[in-house]
Amino acid sequence: MARNHWTILGELDPELNDKITAWRTQLVNDNTKLERKYRELINVAMACILKQEPVILAHAKLAYQNGATKDEILGTVEQVLTMGGFPSFRMAMLTLDEFFHEEEQK
Q: How far is CA 22 from CA 57, 93, 105, in A?
């Protein structure tokens, strides 16, 4: 598995990585207007539109860890069809297929 961009940034520019990490953490922790589950489902939808496979998977896992059901994640991905069309939907379904199977095995 390829290293992710945060690991690479941490090695190349630890100071910038620390600043970005602190900013991201604050955004996640300080946003109380929406429950974390819903914020992660929104992130799944945005990642689908951008066709970012690792981001789709990361935020689907976070949504699941924060209480989203398989049906809610699937419903989010299905909603992507309205704005992102079939290419975005296809990418998401292929990405989430393995995740859903892994969760069923637990």
A: 22, 32, 35
Cα torsion angle, 74, 94, 44, 51, sign = negative
Q: What is the pLDDT of residues 67-77, one digit of tens each?
A: 999 999 999 99
Q: What domains are there in the chain, each with its CATH number?
A: 1-30 (no CATH), 35-105 (1.20.1290.10)
HEC-encoded secondary structure of 11-60: HHCHHHHHHHHHHHHHHHHHCCCCCHHHHHHHHHHHHHHCCCHHHHHHHH
The CA-based diameter of the chain, rounded to the nearest angstrom, is 40
The predicted model scores a pTM of: 0.82
